[in-house]
Amino acid sequence: MQRSPRTSLLAVLAALATAAAATLTLATPAQAAGPTAAFTRTSDWGTGWEGRFTITNGGPGTVTGWQVAFTLPTGTTLGSYWDATVSSAGQRHTFTNRSWNGTVAPGASVSFGFLATGAGSPTDCTLNGAPCGGGTPTSPPTTAPPTTAPPTTAPPTTPPPTTPPPTTPPPTTPPVGGLPKHALIGYLHASFGNGAGYLRMADVPADWDVVNLAFGEPTSVTSGDIRFQLCPVTECPGVETEAEFTAAIRAKQQQGKKVLLSIGGQNGQVQLTTTAARDTFVRSVSAIIDRYGLNGLDIDFEGHSLYLNAGDTDFRNPTTPVVVNLISAIRSLKQRYGAGFVLTMAPETFFVQLGYQFYGSGPWGGQDPRAGSYLPVIHALRNDLTVLHVQDYNSGPIVGLDNQYHTMGGADFHIAMTDMLLTGFPVAGNANAVFPALREDQVAFGAPSSTSAGNGYLAPAGVQQAVTCLVKGQNCGGYAPRSGTNPAFRGLMTWSINWDRYYSWEFRLSHGPFLKALP
């Protein structure tokens, strides 16, 4: 998504912030000799909380491995976790260091975190068998020290499942998003103006089922501190007051519409390279959602926001911090806001479908490390994802499941790109690493609203041909979908509502009634 009329091809939470966050420390004062483990309840949203243990080496010798064990009371259950592995026996949970954070020098600290459901707090805490507040430790767990020094900020990794995953993933449960069966989704230039002109929230027509507010942007690329404000009056003379804007959002919601904060865009590069940035991301995004009473979040990461480090080759178990921290952050937001939280994503084809051919820098290096880098995010969050609407524009040719290149400007491009998500595909041609199909109701596709909105504009008849093919299997042209018919296909997204108004509402007036008429 872009601020200007055109954009290039390469133009998405574990710490939650609440006002009621409470802290409970289980360690003794800092002067205690030897290692200690201090517990902090960093966030509390009533039905659950986020906790963090910080292991500090207060002794003269280096700690070469650690285990923190504690008991949660009946009625409180452990959820997701990061920066450690875990084994559980009933309510007793033992967290063990990862390979990269097991060595703790004198005076240094490391930490791990987790989510819990229920009101209880950890009890009977031990660190390497001794009280967490300090004491004579038993022999540390057997952990080979890393052969190379761990990074300054260790990237969390996706925890291994406690049981082997099934060969075929079990079907996911559709999230309670409250969307119509076939939805019209658009982006509103709320924080900036461009050639399309400013459009007040109250003046957005009711045909739009989801309105994505463009954009929340970070204070710096790696800060994780997301800010959103209405377009300055000097740039948008017709901008409403914040009170009017908020009231208009409420009116939309009373009509059953969803209003989301979209983060990123062409200019909003967001790299959550550290857990601190991840935590800041969650706090700042939560503050914006709460401030306006929004329904959820849209991840529109473009440019260099996502990439894969060398050696990160399995989309099912990512290790790159910007990927893993984003996954963790979004999970935290979902945990806080519950089942009604609407989560959408708007990646470019480069970050998704290109993964059929190329993933990251490749087995021998040299490839663009951003290729396919959205796939681990989508896959990890598929149980929470409401709609994925890939930008089928500003794209180069992409190979489809027919192993033919497909190019923007025709119905075949939309059909082939969307069919990949509805069918699934081997990542980088690896038959042992298949990206599983998404549910029909989780898939839409994005198309420019006009020739000025982005490269790859297709007249309404061509867009509707693509939808008809995907939904009914009719009028498919040169590409036969491997996914068959998809009657629950979610709908259409466009950049943007403002550009659609500029061109006399062609997108809305053509596709709104068309989608509503689908069975």
Query: What is the CATH domain class of the largest domain?
Result: Alpha Beta
User: Would you list the SSEs in sequence order as H and E?
Assistant: EEEEEEEEEEEEHEHEHEHEEEHEEEHEHH
- What Rg do the Cα atoms give? 24 Å
Total number of strands: 22
> Helix- and strand-based class?
alpha/beta
Tally of structural domains: 2
- What profile does the largest beta sheet have? 8 strands, parallel, barrel
* Silhouette: globular
Topology-level CATH name of the largest domain? TIM Barrel
Provide the spatial order of strands within the biggest beta sheet.
Answer: 10-11-13-14-15-16-21-22
Rounded average pLDDT? 86
Which CATH architecture of the largest domain is right? Alpha-Beta Barrel
Tally of individual helices:
8
Compact summary:
By secondary structure, the protein is α/β, with parallel strands linked by helices. The chain contains 8 helices and 22 strands.
Explain the overall architecture.
This protein is an alpha/beta fold and 519 residues long. It has two domains: 35-131, Immunoglobulin-like, CATH 2.60.40; 183-517, Glycosidases (TIM Barrel), CATH 3.20.20.80. The protein contains eight helices and 22 strands. The protein has helices at residues 242-254, 275-292, 321-337, 375-380, 411-423, 460-472, 497-502, 506-517; strands spanning 35-44, 48-57, 67-71, 77-82, 85-89, 92-96, 109-117, 123-127, 130-131, 183-189, 210-218, 226-227, 258-264, 296-300, 342-345, 387-391, 398-399, 405-406, 425-426, 434-435, 443-448, 491-495. Strands 10-11-13-14-15-16-21-22 form an eight-stranded parallel beta barrel, surrounded by four helices. α4 (375-380) links the parallel β15 and β16. The two termini are 30 Å apart.
